Amino acid sequence: MDWMLTRCEEVDEEELSGNEADSEDEGYSDEIADKDGLLLKMTISRANSRKSRPESSGSRLSRLGPDLDHSESDEENLPHRPRDHPPEIDFTTVDINDETAFDTDLEDKGSGTTPGVSIDLVADFQYLRTAYAIDTNLKFSDNLFAALKTTTAYDPTGRTAYIEGCKKVGVVPASYFLRHMNDPHLSMKHHGLGAQGMRAIAMSLVSNTSVLTLDLSDNWLGHPGGHAVCEMLRDNCFITHLDLSDNKFGLQTSESLSRTLQQNSTLTHVTLSGNNFDDKAAVHFSDALMNTTKLEYLDLSRNLFGESAGIVLGPAIADNSSLKEINLSWNSIRRKGAVAIAQGVKNNIYLKKINLAWNGFGLEGAIALGDALKGNQTLEEMDLTNNRVTPEGAVLIGKGVSVNETLTTLRLGRNPMQTAGCYGICAAILRNPNCALREIDFKDILVNKDFDDIFKQVQEQIPDIKMRHGGMEPPKKPRARIHPMVKLTNYIEKNNLRLVDFFNKFDKDGSMSVTYEEFQQGIECARAALQKLVKSESLQDTGIKLTQEEVQILLNELDSDGDGEINFSEMVSGHTGFQESQQENINVILTASQPRPVTT
Questions:
Q1: Other C-beta atoms within 10 Å of 538: how many?
Q2: Alpha-carbon distance 264 to 314, whole Å?
Q3: Model pLDDT, residue 154
Q4: Which one of 189, 411, 413, 424 is CB 3.0 to 4.6 Å from 395, fit for a cystine?
């Protein structure tokens, strides 16, 4: 898209008539002739196929319309200007009400093409930047800008100021901003404005009375851009919600923001997450919290605050009288800093919501927060997700829950508190007849049947309560049953017995045949003898601990002929056969674990 300023040259009536048809093919054009005979022709083209710079530079002379009212004598008196001179661009002559002007957004314009003069924005970017500077070659440039200012003595939208600002700082005006600068909710996130682009926007927002909510997140403004925002907020008294997250401000900008928050009387919601604010920057924000009387919401999440920052911010939270919600999640606040934050919550009588997720409060912070819940009777929501809260810490927080009557939402998900910690919170709710909790979050924490039982009691006390957890613990798998023959073999080997010696312990009459009753009595005698020799805790290792069911299984296997008696030969064959089957199983496992041979 090109905004072109062209000078009328020696044009006769034949050339005018010859170009009349061509002028009708232009996409959208506007012509202004000043008293010196200079023709300002502005042409908008949204053609997808851009002309190269040599082609576009050769077509920069605008076609003149047939209705131009100039005499031939006036045209002859015009000074001659070489055709190959690069045209100058003046954004002060732009129709600021045209939505399609300065179309710098990466929007799909369709596959169709519109005739007109255009240049490649990428190829001519450097040319545009230099052309935005104040033009000293064209004598009528300042006159046009002065005329524009006189015709718009007061511009509440700030469009004129934005065009002038872009010209001064040398940036391409954002068409999206021009189209939406009258909206009460203006979102300029992810536009890549940078410091220079922000300066131009700040110039226009100084006098803008329409924008109430401004989102400038993720624009890499840096300190210069942040300073421009602060300067703008000194004069703008309409913006109430401001989002400056992910702009890499750092320590320098924190001081400017602190002064702005203390001086501005309209800002109520400010988001400053992801700006690399460290413990030193926390000092400036603590000053702002102590002195502001309008700020209701402050988001300082995803920064670099540590223990020292918590120590500084804690007293500031306690002294603040306007803040209703604060977000300190995704920092590294722990130990003394966590205790200081908890003390600040305890002493603040205005705070409604606090987000402390993804810090490191641990046991010390849990103790302090439990004490804070006892003393605070205004807090409604608290998020402690992933804060290293142990089962003991959860029980201590539960002590505060047992007496608190205002807390409605408690989030403790992703903490190593296990089902015991969840049980402790539910038990605390049952001890508080005036408990106001309506939502509990135990995300990613497995619970067991004991917790399920106590939560049913909580539901009887508070029917509309909602609870979220990580699911029920899977039932414990039963231990693999050991074959009774294995126990018998282990007993024989451990006591260095021969199979015949073991059999003789059961065969009291020497008949080399043992009945079921004699075999069971022998097992009981062996068990009694072992109890006298070894300690009770090592009985499981003796290998002779057989249940009645296992004894019956053993008898059925050893009595191969089913006559109700176990012969010595049956015991030998049964014992040998079992050992061979065990060895076969081992060989199968070893064979399966070996890698397959490579085949060609």
A1: 9
A2: 23
A3: 64
A4: 424
pLDDT of residue 526: 61
- Check residue 541 and give its pLDDT: 42
Q: Identify whether the C-beta of residue 158 lies closer than 8 Å to the C-beta of residue 181.
A: yes
Specify the number of domains making up the chain. Answer: 2
Q: Are 80 and 9 in contact, with CB atoms under 8 Å apart?
A: yes
Check if the beta carbon of residue 318 is closer than 8 Å to that of residue 289: no
Spatial neighbors of 354 by CB under 8 A, at least 6 apart, are 325, 326, 327, 328, 345, 379, 381, 382, 383
DSSP 468: E
Which of 111, 131, 151 is where one domain is finished?
131
Collapsed DSSP state (helix, strand, coil) of residue 41: strand
Residue 38 near residue 8 (C-beta atoms within 8 A):
yes
User: CA–CA distance from 237 to each of 150, 254, 267, 289 (Å)?
Assistant: 25, 21, 8, 20
What's the pLDDT score for residue 161? 87
53 in any annotated domain:
yes
Determine the pLDDT at residue 383. 98
The answer to whether position 599 is within a domain reads no
What is the C-alpha end-to-end distance of the chain, expressed in Å? 66
Q: Which of 86, 106, 131 is the last residue of a domain?
A: 131
Of 116, 119, 6, whose CA–CA distance to 64 is shortest? Answer: 6
Instruction: Judge whether 386 and 415 are in contact, CB under 8 Å.
Output: yes
Helix 418-430 × helix 449-461 angle, to 10°: 20
C-beta neighbour count of 112 within 10 angstroms: 8
At residue 556, the pLDDT reads: 73
Domain extent for 545? 491-593
527, part of any domain: yes
- Give residue 485's pLDDT: 72
Q: In terms of Cα–Cα distance, which of 179, 177, 251 is closest to 214?
A: 177
Give a yes or no: residue 235 inside a domain: no
Question: H-helix or E-strand containing 469?
Answer: strand 466-469
Q: Report d(CA 92, CA 161) in Å as an integer.
A: 10
CATH, residue 535: 1.10.238.10
Segments of the chain scoring below 50 in pLDDT:
1-89, 91-92, 99, 101-152, 533-543
Return the closest-CA partner of residue 326 out of 303, 334, 336, 307: 303
Helix, strand or coil, per DSSP, at residue 272? coil
